[in-house]
Amino acid sequence: VVGYDQSFKGKYPNGVGRVPVGIRNKRKRIVVTGGAGFVGSHLVDKLIARGDDVIVIDNFFTGRKENIVHLFGNPRFELIRHDVVEPILLEVDQIYHLACPASPVHYKYNPVKTIKTNVMGTLNMLGLAKRIGARFLLTSTSEVYGDPLEHPQKETYWGHVNPIGVRSCYDEGKRTAETLTMDYHRGDGVEVRIARIFNTYGPRMCLDDGRVVSNFVSQAIRKQPMTVYGDGKQTRSFQYVSDLVDGLVALMESEHIGPFNLGNPGEFTMLELAEVVKETIDSSATIEFKENTADDPHKRKPDITKAKDLLNWEPKISLREGLPLMVNDFRNRILNEDEGKGN
Ligand code: NAD
Ligand code: UDP
Ligand code: UDP
């Protein structure tokens, strides 16, 4: 295996069986699991632009080749079709572990697979990190706070989560992934980082992933009514994807384990979000009310004081600035889709 030399085994506390970066070369070798997905593909772009060697591991459950096709042919980019539920042998310096469906529609589609991905997938990536002495970053979620009784949510809050509900495969799965991460750190000395990501939007989201921003934007472009679930008074805080990617890299490069909330504290009701989408896309857009899904958190807003203080990070792009950047991408893809159908 390239870069793997048994003769170094045991000589370097941080590099069991791995040729240290300083001897091999200065570029970092980085794995991004879920790198063909929405967030992962933007992260890969940033790492490649910085000069790193990147290996994407993805099973294409919700990821798309279109998100990374511009990197094919780049000698510093490699793609492995692989399911993280199965073990894998690689030699790298850092692991960004994103593989997991994130939209409620996707993660509820096969809940047992979702929990296997969160538990066995994270276990395998931690086992890998332990064997090669790589630094490991988990992308956890604001869903670990459940339907929160504390508002806004700080990292010290333990959450209010239903262990047997339809969202449990995801939120309990991520909670277990956080537990595994801390146990590999405490028990095996693995260098770990935990990010708790709040609702994020931007170009390359799946057009029909059922998440509220992608739904409203697709619906407004297609001149369909925007579907507001429940009374639309529930709140979320929406972060533009480049802010998140900056936060993930800042966390990986920092000396802090976390967990850190990474999100935009600007809080909107779904009715307010519909209004912003209407202003951005089509002033004649309408809304229709639909029944809400089970266990829907009533409100969610990150307290990001910890990330501001320790990572010197805060989001820069407001919802009104970020939405138009996503709309251009969605317009083009919806247009291509329609042309594909001969419309
Ligand atoms: P996404 O669905 O676009 O990307 C997930 C990627 O993981 C896809 O490419 C998918 O094919 C891949 N994947 C899923 N299961 C896999 C498996 N078993 N083996 C290999 N690959 C697998 O979602 P996203 O929005 O880019 O989310 C990325 C990460 O960030 C997820 O871990 C998610 O839980 C976390 N997160 C995202 C948000 C958000 O708002 N986008 C919020 C909180 C947390
Ligand atoms: N693992 C992996 N790649 C590696 C090392 C480990 O996929 O390079 C997997 C391994 O198959 C196991 C998991 O990670 O299922 C946990 O590994 P660890 O060594 O911590 O535990 P053990 O193998 O002793 O159960
Ligand atoms: N929602 C909505 N209309 C939609 C999709 C979602 O009103 O078409 C609501 C949903 O009930 C929830 C919020 O938007 O209160 C955010 O849902 P999403 O699925 O985007 O993410 P979540 O934060 O629930 O994981």
From TrEMBL:
EC numbers for this chain: 4.1.1.35
Location of this chain's protein in the cell: Golgi apparatus, Golgi stack membrane
Cofactor(s) named in the record: NAD(+)
Signal peptide coordinates: none
Top EC category: lyase
Entry keyword set: Decarboxylase, Golgi apparatus, Lyase, Membrane, NAD, Transmembrane, Transmembrane helix
GO molecular function per UniProt: NAD+ binding; UDP-glucuronate decarboxylase activity
Annotated ranges, domain NAD(P)-binding: 32-324
Involved pathway(s): Nucleotide-sugar biosynthesis; UDP-alpha-D-xylose biosynthesis; UDP-alpha-D-xylose from UDP-alpha-D-glucuronate: step 1/1
Membrane topology: Single-pass type II membrane protein
Domain of life: Eukaryota
GO biological process, one term: D-xylose metabolic process
Keyword Lyase: yes
GO CC list: Golgi cisterna membrane
Family assignment from sequence similarity: Belongs to the NAD(P)-dependent epimerase/dehydratase family. UDP-glucuronic acid decarboxylase subfamily.
Function text: Catalyzes the NAD-dependent decarboxylation of UDP-glucuronic acid to UDP-xylose. Necessary for the biosynthesis of the core tetrasaccharide in glycosaminoglycan biosynthesis.
Protein name per its UniProtKB record: UDP-glucuronate decarboxylase
Organism: Olea europaea subsp. europaea
